[in-house]
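Why do we care about 3D structure at all? Because function follows from shape, and shape follows, mostly, from sequence. That is the central idea of this module. The next example makes it concrete: a single protein chain, its amino acid sequence, and then its structure expressed as tokens.
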Amino acid sequence: YCGRFWALSCDPGFYLVGEPVLQCQNRGEWSHPLPSCERVSCGPPRPLENGLFEGADFHAGSSVVYQCHPGFYLLGDTKTHCSNSGKWGGHPPACLDVDECALGSDCDDHASCQNTDGSYTCTCIHPYSGDGKNCTEPVKCPNPGSPEFGHRDFSNFLMGSEVVFGCDNGYELVGSSRLNCLESGAWDSPVPYCRALSCPAPA
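And the structure:
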């Protein structure tokens, strides 16, 4: 009826755009243009460090799902909903680093595991070598022993190492005094020995 006032409102999840109260005037027209109802928007949720969210509808009643990048795990709610009040519900989740070294990595038994942000690294422990996930035992030469009536210095028989021989007083070394361990796993010279010194025949 003309002269009466009408109060308009929107359903939950929508907000009114325009004048909420209209009056029917004598000319049979409303005092203001009819308002419209627009969906309430929460806007994009905050970015998730080391993760992402799936969902492109940020209006009331919609939801987005969070997930973390490989090497991280999600702490908090995996899904959040846009409320009718225009705010995302729940507590924002976080992506925390997974400690692969503590959980059990695929590093070799002869390698050390170092946790990094979102990943980990494997490093072969000396003298083993490789990529950390496959470490090979170093080449080693056989124990050359110590010559009778003599001695040997150094006890490292790995490839590239050197041992030195010497004799006691009254003996001389026959052969090389230094042996080097080759890549083939053999010494570069025969193992020397000590021979007693002899005096020249009396004139």
